[in-house]
Amino acid sequence: MNAYLYCARNERQSFLRSAMLKSVHTTSTGPNGQPPDIPPVRPASGARVDGFQQKIDALWSRIEDAKAQGLYHYFQAVDDLDGPWVETEGQRKLMFATYSYLGLLQHPRIVAAAQEAIARYGAGTHGVRILGGTLDLHVQLEERIARYAGREDAIVFSSGYVTNLATISTLVNRGDWVISDRWNHASIVDGCLLAQGEFRRFRHDDMADLARVLEQAPRQAAKLIVADAVFSMDGDIFNLPAALELAERHNAWLMVDEAHSLGVLGATGRGIEEHFDLPGAIHVKMGTLSKTIPGVGGYVAGDRKLINFLRHTARGFVYSAALPPAVVAGILAAFDVLEEEGGERNRLLQRNVQHFIGGLQAAGFDTGRTCTPIVPIMVGTETNALTMTRYCQERGLFVLPVLPPAVPEGAARLRANVTAAHTTEDIDFALGVFIQAGKLVGVI
User: Fold this and answer.
1) Count of domains forming the chain
2) Is 243 exposed, middle or buried (0-12, 13-18, 19+ CB in 10 A)?
3) Cβ atoms < 10 Å from Cβ of 47
4) So what's the pLDDT on residue 6?
5) Please, which residues have CB within 8 angstroms of residue 399's CB and are 6 or more apart in sequence?
6) Which terminus of the chain is less hemmed in, N or C, by CB atoms within 10 Å?
7) What pLDDT sits at residue 71?
8) Measured distance between the N- and C-terminal CA atoms of the chain, rounded to whole angstroms
9) pLDDT tens track for 299-332
10) Quick count: other Cβ atoms within 10 Å of Cβ 98?
């Protein structure tokens, strides 16, 4: 039997299914978003069991087994970058697991701005923003984001995860409703769980089901609809026009997470509103500063009173340290680059996306509904996904699997991310490796 298939078929690989991903995606919650039922630890009669240590040890064993079989590919440390190519664990690999969609990670203007900020402001700040931690750079960045997003004001948080967690839990209180797409990112789900209102979910991108849920809400209840602009597992685009129509009909607000659409959707990469020609339509416009923008953090852009409310009441903002000056200056420079180069880089990105998806589909792969740089290569079983990942990694292609419960049973996939920095030769190399890996496990 082929060594790859033998290793991948070992039942101990299920550590990923049963433990690692259980806590990181929306499908780990119940049908209305409530936490899953977790069976209690039941000790043998007379025995004393440390329930915390039992969980910790179980995951440790599963990971060690996977490492022994060459099936654990997480947390690889990159020690050198050369455009889309990286050096990791002594091997040069083509990066196809990146969120740097426009290839700005090493842009010289962004790097220079970060270096200059360290020289002027130092390495950090004096604390939280509401007290002594606000620099003029933070004010400039929030003003810049607001202009770019076409809003009155903006607020910057310490991470994208915190942005969703803090914003949703601050806006939604007892008596309010928050209604979330079933495939939304875990940060949205966690924000809904933390909020004190009624949490409901609708079937993925199903506007009829969204209408059904909205009709169940009391007329007087404040209602917040939340969705990703581009969904991170399948790369498909949220139906913004239909959702806006429902929001208006039911007197609801719409919050959209533009983590994977900034720099990607629209002629100039301004996101989902530009894509659908609906400027200013979203009530709460959220985005991240760690994907197309090569920094860290997240933001909300909206009207002045909304942002003022979040600045003074969102605990994830009030009690978090300010972003370091080097990060803020780099992000400011990145928005300058987007203004000047975003259109051309977006055209390169779309060309690469079409070439890559077209090549996969011509070879017989199922790539779902994606038309964005997030390309799911559907391979069915967990065994196929792990086997193909190992094959690709050993041949210099950096890609990772997505397994149940992060996706439904039978829908395991390799998630490949295309960038504007990839050359045609890079994409052809990746296609060749994916095709050979697919033939190895028999999915094409």
Assistant:
1) 2
2) buried
3) 7
4) 36
5) 96, 97, 389, 392, 393, 414, 415, 416
6) N
7) 87
8) 19
9) 999 999 999 999 999 999 999 999 999 999 999 9
10) 18
Residue 153 pairs with which residues in a beta bridge? 302
Domain identity same for 389 and 436: yes
355: which 2 tokens?
A: 């070439």
Pick from 246, 164, 248, 158: nearest CA to 205 = 246
- Structure token digits, residue 424: 């045609």
Contact by Cβ (8 Å): 379, 438: yes
What CA–CA distance (Å, rounded) separates 373 from 417?
Answer: 5
Exactly one of 260, 275, 285, 422 is catalytic; name it.
260
Contact call for residues 334 and 295 (beta carbons, < 8 A): yes
Pair (304, 358) in one structural domain: no
CB 20 within 8 A of CB 73: no
Catalytic residue among 25, 223, 285, 291: 291
The CA-based angle 410-413-419, given to 5 degrees, is: 160
Q: Are residues 60 and 144 in the same domain?
A: no
Question: 197: which strand partners?
Answer: none
Q: Is 260 a catalytic residue?
A: yes
CA R_g for the chain: 22
| CA gap 121, 109 in Å, rounded | 18
User: What digits encode the pLDDT tens for the residues 123-132?
Assistant: 999 999 999 9
Is the pLDDT assigned to residue 73 strictly greater than 80?
Answer: yes
Place of tokens 């090493």: 106
pLDDT at position 21: 43
Amino acid occupying residue 123: A
For the question of residue 291 being annotated catalytic, the response is yes
SS3 147: helix
Q: Dihedral angle at the C-alpha atoms of 182, 293, 84, 366, nearest 10 degrees?
A: 20
Tell me the two tokens of residue 159: 């991470």
| Residue 275 designated active-site | no
Q: Which two tokens stand for residue 185?
A: 């990112």
User: Do 414 and 400 touch, CB atoms closer than 8 A?
Assistant: yes
| CATH label of the domain that carries residue 97 | 3.90.1150.10
Residues spanned by the domain of 175: 125-323
Name the 3-class secondary structure at 77. coil
